[in-house]
Specification:
The chain is an alpha+beta fold and about 90 residues long. It has 3 helices and 5 strands, in the order E-E-E-E-H-H-H-E. It has a 3-stranded antiparallel beta sheet with strand order 2-3-4, with no helix packed on it. The protein has a two-stranded antiparallel ribbon with strand order 1-5. Helix 2 crosses helix 3. The radius of gyration is 13 Å and the shape is globular. The two termini are about 15 Å apart.
């Protein structure tokens, strides 16, 4: 499935981040967990239902300004699609 850049990703029911004071930062999902760091953490922290995919891409292209913007966008879209496939994210219009 292709990710709509105007949609607003949010954590799916039953998924949550561990407490900010706990390290490493972890995405807790039913029956599994995913350790997050670097770009993956930056992406998931912005999946709050307020940011659009387009806004997430723009913010991370700015944050990782030394990287090729097209590569940053491709990586973000791929990661969001993976999280959706794993049922960790829902996308709202």
């Amino acid at each position: 499935m292709s990710v709509d850049v105007l949609s607003r990703p949010r954590l799916a029911p039953g998924c949550r981040m561990n407490e900010g004071s706990q390290q490493p930062r972890t995405l807790l999902m039913p029956e599994r967990a995913l350790r997050l760091n670097g770009p993956s953490l930056e992406i998931v922290e912005r999946c709050d239902g307020k940011h659009t995919v387009q806004e997430i891409i723009a913010e991370l292209q700015e944050l990782y300004a030394k990287a090729d913007p097209a590569k940053v966008e491709q990586d973000i879209l791929g990661y969001l699609a993976l999280l959706e496939k794993e049922r960790a994210l829902d996308f709202e219009p």
